[in-house]
Amino acid sequence: MLLVFQVLARLPLWLLHGLGALLGWVVFVFSPGYRRNFVANARQAGLGAPQWRSAISAAGRLAIEVPRLWLGPSVAVRWQGAELVDAALAQGRGVVFITPHLGCFEVAAQAYAQRFGSTHPMTALYRPARQAWLAALEARSRARPGLLTAPTTLTGVRQMLKALKAGHCVGLLPDQVPPLGQGAWQPFFGKPAYTMTLSVRLAQMTGAATLLAWGERLSWGRGYVLHILPAPNVQGLDDSLALAALNQALETLVLQHSDQYLWGYARYKQPRSA
User: Fold this and answer.
1) Using CA atoms, how far apart are residues 36 and 46, in angstroms rounded to an integer?
2) How many domains, the chain?
3) In sequence order, what are the residues at sequence separation of 6 or more whose Cβ sits closer than 8 angstroms to the Cβ of residue 149?
4) Chain segment 74-112, per-residue pLDDT in tens
5) Is residue 217 domain-resident?
6) Do the domain assignments include residue 253?
7) Domain for residue 201, yes or no?
8) Is there a contact between 122 and 149 (Cβ–Cβ < 8 Å)?
9) Does this model's pTM top 0.90?
């Protein structure tokens, strides 16, 4: 599999995204469980087929672009909202970047590290892969100048707290289902979803600023646009109000760009044991 990764990493982005679009449809057609979950999640958000159909291809592109982002040459990234990052960093109190399963979340951390990492490194939370070879490749490929990684363990949480208290940044996916005891049930598109409390608690415990970030995937392999947007101010709110505000902000963002959301993710599943 490592050889496959290395071969894919050498392909031009337009070709990878073309293959990814095909892969997305193959998985959608031949995986009934994935297809049911995908369609049910999109319908839960009130979308019809014309609004979610192109997300099928986007899911395949997301999967197949990973080797290029991990092992290949850099890709073109434009910024929208970089001034919000400048303003937040100028306050010197750290920043929590909230990046949902929208567009290309791999490129968001990489682009931040390239632009701001030399002075304000980012620590990104990730769940290590179960396969040993992939976990090793993941750790080696994601860690780069200005970008550190923290596993989804108590040690990783401590690492993120330390980074924020030093005035640096952290990044995490707030719509990833955490283990039991590390989240709370909150509505997401009107249906209870087990929602991680870590993002809001990190901000509250350190006084860090919060920003939304997502990497828009441009057509025909033209690269990405990294969008930085204001996030709800969770300071002084209890978990319930803070998570409700965050989920509402994510709903708005997802509906605006439903063609690049990962609808196949099992957002409403039961959390696993800690």
Assistant:
1) 15
2) 1
3) 123, 124, 125, 126, 139, 142, 143
4) 899 999 999 999 999 999 889 999 999 999 999 999 999
5) yes
6) yes
7) yes
8) no
9) yes
